[in-house]
Write a structure and sequence with these properties.
Layout: H1 5-11, H2 15-23, H3 27-50, H4 68-80, H5 86-93, H6 98-112, H7 116-123, H8 126-135, H9 139-151, H10 158-166, H11 170-184, H12 188-195, H13 198-208, H14 221-233, H15 243-252, H16 255-265, H17 273-280, H18 283-310, H19 318-328, H20 333-344, H21 348-355, H22 358-368
């Protein structure tokens, strides 16, 4: 008897089908089917482990009792109002998920006979406009635009490139590259290579090539020790630094593996890896290495620190605030809030309240999702 893998796959999801099939088979056929089902089950376990998504801690979730036509009509009225009703726009767009915003945009186009993003751009200005337009874009679309803006015109915004490329995982980077190509008819890798240089460029390009190992349920202690030793011997142990070794290990090993490598590294070096990076390299290369290590250790703490830096001194770096809250509100902003409070002794909500103002402040606080 020959039974296709597709049948096994279907059976694994329907207990009644399994029972009926087994009752009609001989002992040898039953054994074959059971072994196939076990194999399929184990295969699914391995697959899910290797591609497991990062846990989500959003502050913006799908709105209950969602009515896209009602929301679209409210937006139409808010945009037509003399002086513009910013409060209603903020209330709707910051409290709906991205998917719901797309439904609202579709409903708005039917009611107003024009594109919602175009209407928002015409009615709003400054940081509030940038934030609202950012919310209307998919994560990959938004990231692609931010990366492009960091390289457009004279000079390059290296800090933004480091944040955007070093903090995204391989799946996110692959999506960004695809959207970047669709939007600008250019290759992201070539644009980054043209706007950066040296070992700094090599780090960014290695990440864009998305060659990081898939996570494994097997802990390879020998490889962990080898990598920790290699990092030490390529840096602190020798005169000068073999940057190629650091780049290869930090951009190609899985996050779980590297977390163990960082711990093991302390048994070889009198400094932890971040201290070693600060001693061995400088400038944008130092920033990119530190960002990689910080994101691999605790990505939410990295973003909490970026937000704190953006609100130090007089005024706030509104582009940084906008980018992080827009890009993380449906990902992990709740956890970023917790890390911010733990590290900086005050809530993110309070910090935003102290360093921003007006309708832009209201929009940020709504995305923040509450005080801690």
């Amino acid at each position: 008897m020959r039974v296709s893998k597709a049948i096994f796959f279907a059976c694994s999801r329907d207990g009644l089908k399994v029972t009926a099939l087994l009752q009609s088979c001989s002992r040898s056929e039953v054994w074959v089917i059971k072994m196939a089902l076990v194999s399929e089950f184990l295969g699914q376990l391995t697959l899910s482990y290797g591609t497991e998504a990062e846990p989500a801690f959003p502050t913006v979730v799908a709105f209950r009792d969602f009515d896209p036509i009602s929301d679209a009509a409210r937006l139409d009225a808010a945009l037509r109002t003399k002086g513009v009703d910013e409060e209603s726009i903020i209330d709707i767009l910051t409290r709906r998920s991205y998917e719901q915003r797309q439904e609202i945009a579709f409903g708005y186009e039917r009611i107003a006979k024009k594109d919602l993003q175009t209407a928002l751009k015409g009615a709003l200005s400054g940081s509030l406009e940038a934030l609202m337009l950012g919310l209307m874009k998919s994560p990959a679309h938004y990231d692609a635009l931010e990366i492009r803006a960091a390289m457009k015109g004279l000079g390059t915004d290296e800090d933004t490139l480091i944040e955007m490329i070093c903090s995204r995982n391989d799946r996110e980077l692959a999506d960004i590259q695809k959207v970047y190509r669709e939007l600008f008819k250019k290759d992201l890798e070539k644009d980054v290579a043209g706007d950066t240089s040296g070992d700094f460029a090599k780090v960014l390009l290695a990440l864009i090539q998305t060659k990081r190992d898939e996570p494994s349920n097997v802990v390879d202690y020998e490889k962990i020790d080898d990598d920790a030793k290699s990092l030490y011997e390529a840096g602190v142990k020798r005169k000068g630094t073999d940057e190629a070794v650091w780049i290869s290990i930090l951009t190609q090993r899985s996050a779980a593996h590297l977390q163990r490598v960082f711990e093991r590294y302390k048994s070889y070096s009198p400094y932890d890896l971040k201290e070693s990076i600060c001693k061995e390299v400088k400038g944008d290369l130092e920033k990119s290495f530190l960002t990689l290590v910080e994101c691999l250790e605790n990505k939410q703490m990295y973003f909490a620190n970026r937000l704190d830096e953006a609100m130090k001194g007089k005024g706030a770096k509104e582009k940084v605030l906008t980018r992080i809250l827009v890009s993380r509100c449906q990902v992990d902003l709740m956890k970023i809030r917790r890390e911010f409070k733990k590290r900086h002794g005050r809530s993110l909500y309070r910090a935003i309240s102290e360093h921003t103002k007006g309708d832009y402040q209201k929009a940020l606080l709504s995305l923040c999702g509450g005080d801690d």
